[in-house]
Amino acid sequence: MARLAGLTRIPLGLVVVTxxxxxxxxxxxxxxxxxxxxxxxxxxCHSEGAETAIAxxxxxxxxRLDVExxxxxxxxxxxxxxxxxxxxMPPSSEPRPDPVVRDQFVTYLETELDRLAxxxxxxxRPALHRLNRTEYQNAIHDLLALDIDAKELLPGDDASAGFDxxxxxxxxxxxxxxxxxxAAARIARLAVGDVAMTAEQKTHYVPNFLMQSQHIxxxxxxxxxxxxxxxxxxxxxxxxxxVDLMSAVNGIHIGNTVPNEQLELSIDGKRLALFDISKAPPxxxxxxxxxxxxKEAAADVPKKPEPKSAAADEAQKPPQNPEQQEKAGEKWxxxxxxxxxxxxxxxxxxxxxxxxxxxxxxxxxxxxxDPLFNGTPEVTMIAHVGSIVVDGPYAATGAGTTPxxxxxxxxxxxAASEQEACAREIVSTLAHRAYRQPPTTEHLSVLMDxxxxxxxxxxxxxxxxxxxxxxxxSPQFVFRFERDPAGTSPDKPYRLTDAELASRLAFFLWSSIxxxxxxxxxxxxxxxxxxxxxxxxxxxxxxxxxxALTKNFAGQWLFLRNLDIKGASTYEFPDFxxxxxxxxxxxxxxxxxxxVRNDHxxxxxxxxxxxxxxxxxxxxxxxxxxxxxxxRKVPVTDPRRQGLLGQGxxxxxxxxPNRTSPVTRGVWVLENVxxxxxxxxxxxxxxxxxxxxxxxxxxxxxxxxxxxxxxxKPFCEGCHKIMDPVGLALENYDVIGRWRELDHGAKIxxxxxxxxxxxxxxxxxxxxxxxxxxLQIVRNMTEKLMVYATGRGMEYYDMPVIRSIVRNAAxxxxxxxxxxxxxxxxxPFRMRASESLAEGTVTxxxxx
Length: 848
Hints:
Layout: E1 9-11, E2 16-18, H1 28-41, H2 53-58, H3 74-85, H4 99-119, E3 129-130, H5 133-144, H6 150-153, H7 174-192, E4 200-205, E5 223-233, E6 236-245, E7 262-267, E8 270-276, H8 286-300, H9 310-316, H10 322-328, E9 330-338, E10 341-350, E11 360-362, H11 370-373, E12 378-380, E13 385-398, H12 403-408, H13 419-435, H14 441-458, H15 460-473, H16 475-478, E14 479-480, E15 494-495, H17 498-509, H18 516-523, H19 530-542, H20 547-557, H21 578-597, H22 604-607, E16 610-613, H23 615-621, E17 632-635, H24 648-653, H25 662-674, H26 689-692, H27 703-711, H28 717-728, E18 742-743, E19 746-747, E20 751-753, E21 759-761, H29 763-771, H30 774-790, H31 799-810, H32 816-824, H33 827-830, E22 831-832, H34 835-839, H35 844-847
Antiparallel strand pairs: 1-2, 3-14, 4-13, 5-10, 6-9, 6-13, 7-8, 7-10, 11-12, 15-22, 16-17, 18-19, 20-21
Helix pairs in contact: 3-4, 7-15, 13-14, 13-15, 14-15, 17-18, 19-32, 20-21, 25-28, 27-28, 30-31, 30-32, 31-32
C-alpha cells in the first residue's frame, strides 16, 4: 500500500477530493495505485480466473473492467462503490485494506462517476403514474371534503423498490377501470347528496384482539374500551345506529362479570342512548346451560385417541370474517334523526371506579371447555364493543348542508336561466383542481355534455353529480400525465412544466393533489423560481397533510405497514394484543414525525434519547411514571432503547410469531438502515431452523443454537456470516421487544463480528458500529426518499445526484428539510428524460 502515498489533492468544483487523482491529468501513479488496490483487495475473489462463489453470484469480474476509464462501465463501478461504502467487502475472512487507502479508492471512483453524470445527465423517466389507493383517497378528501375508505372501493396496489407509488408497478386492467368507474359514481352521489339513494349498511369494526379493560385514547375520560369513528351521513334523515358486543371467540368477550355495566352511544359528544347491558335477555338456566355445553363439547370432541371430525373441527373455529363475528354478538340499537355530513360516533362503557378489572382468566385445561377456547391461553370475561353499525338513510328530508356540498357548489342559481352558467363555473373549478391544471376547451365541453345528460334525468344538482362522476373517472384525474413538449431533443432531458412540478410536489409531500396556492403559482409559472419553491416546500412540510410522509413513506420504508399482518403467538406471549401492536406503531410514527416537524437530523432515528409512549407501552418497556392512554414524549435513560433498534415495532415486524429471527432482523438493518444489498437465498431448498436442528428437543435450544445448526448446511454459511451477527446483536429483545437475558434457559450470547471485522456485543455496540457509516446511512435514506418522490426505482446514473444531496446536507447536520430540498431541486425530480434517452439506459433489474 506504500504505492498510494503522496497522491495529489485535486479540486473538482463542487467537491475537493484527496486520493487517486484525476484521469484527466493522465498521471501514471494514481492509475497504478488504483490497479494496485484492486489487485491486493479484490481480484482474489472478483476475477475471471478465481471463479469463486462471490464472483459467480454477483457476476462482478473486476479484472474485465478498465479502472482507468470508469465511464465505460458506470453501473459496475457503482456496485463496487456501494459494497465498499457499506463495509460489505472484502468479506470478513479476508484481510481488510487500510481505511484511508480504501476511502481514497472509493473517492476516486465516485469522482469519475460524478464527472460522467455531469457530462451525460439522465434524470430518468417514470412510467405513466396511476393514483394508488392512498393517493386516490387523499385526493378525494382534498377535492371534495369527503372521507372515503379506498380499500373498500378499489383493488390493492402492487409495490416495487419498497413502495406502492412506483409508477411501473401501478398497472391497469379492465377490473381496475370498472372499479374506478364504480367508485366515481358512488363518491359523486355521496358528495352531492342524492336524495333518491337507498338505505345501506356500514359497519365499523373493532380489531379482534383490542383489549378494552382500560380507557382508549380519543374516547371520553371516565370510560373504558369502546370505539370512536367518523361516519359520513349522506342526507338529512333517520338512521338506525347499533352497537354489537363481541361474542365468545378467541381472546374476546364471553360474558359480563361486571354488575350494572352501562354502554354509552354518542354522536359528536352528545349522548344518544345509555344501555344497561346487565339487563340483557337472561341466558338459559345455569344447570341447563352446563348440560347443553357439555353435550356440544362431547359431540365436538371425540374420545381420545380418535381424531376430531372435520365438521367438529370446523365448528370449533372462531369466526373467519367480521360478518360472522357480528352475527354471533349482542346488539344494542337506537333510531335517530341525523343531519347530513361527517359526525363522530362513539360507543364506550362507563367506568364507575378505577379499581383494576380482573378481566383475564386462564384457559381451563383438560376439561370439556377446551374446544370453546380453541387453545387460546387466556380469554377476557368483560364486555367488549365489537362494532358500530350505521343503517340508513330512512325518511330523508333533503341533502342538507355538508362540507362536500359547500366545496362543490361555488354558486347557486336563482333562476333556470342561470343554471348552465353556474354549472360551467362549478365544473370548471372542480376539473382544474382534479386535473391539476386548467381544463382545456375540449375537456370542458365533454364535462358539460355529461352535465346536460344528468340535467335531463334530474335537474341541476343531478347534472352536477353526473359531471363530477365523469371528472373522477377521467384519465386526467386517475393518472398523472407528464407529456414530452414539442420539439424535444431525442437525446436531452427537459424540465417539467410548473403544473407538473406542482403535481409531483404535492404527491411527494402530501400524497395528494396540489392545493389552490400551488395551482395558482403554477398557472403563473412562478413555482419553479428557487426562492418560491423553497418557501412552498417549507409551507407544505409544516402543513398537517405532511403526515403522509410518516404514514406512507416511513410506513413502508420502516415496514410499519407490515405490523397489520404481524403478530406474536398468544401461547408464547399472552401479553400481546392489538393495544400493544398499535402502541408500537404509534411510537415509531411519532419519532419520525418529530424529526420532520422539528427539522432534526435524520440520524436521530438511530440515536434519539427520547421516545413516545402511553401507559401501556411505558409499562411494557419498564419506563416509570407514565399514566393514561395519551402518548407523550419521554426521555430514554436506557441506552439500549435509544432509536429504532430498541423499538417494539421494528423488533416485532422482524420476528416470527413464536421466536425471534436474527436473519430477518439482520437483513432489515443492512438493507433498510445501511443500504447494503444482501444476497438472495441460493436456488436450493433451504430447511427451516426447526428442521435443521434434526431430532433435538427444540424447547432446549436457543435461537442462536438453531442458527448454528442451520449454518452448517451447504450454501448457507457464506451469506449468514453477513446477516447473523447483526441480527444476533438484537437477540436480547424478544419477539415483542422485551429485554431478556435467557432464551430457553440458555444465557443469550449477542456477540459477533460484522463483515468489516468490527467486534460487537449487543444493540449499543451494533448502533455504534453502524454510525461509523453515517454517510452511507444518510445516503440510503436519501435514495429511499428519491424513489418515493419520483415514483421510480433508482438506477446507477442516479447515484451521483444522491451523493451531491448528502454532501450538501452534511453542512446542515443532515436535517430533514435539507434532504427534502435536495430531492425537490434535483434533476430527477424536476426533469425528465426523453423517451429515446430512457430507452438507452439499463434498468435496475438488469444492473443487479
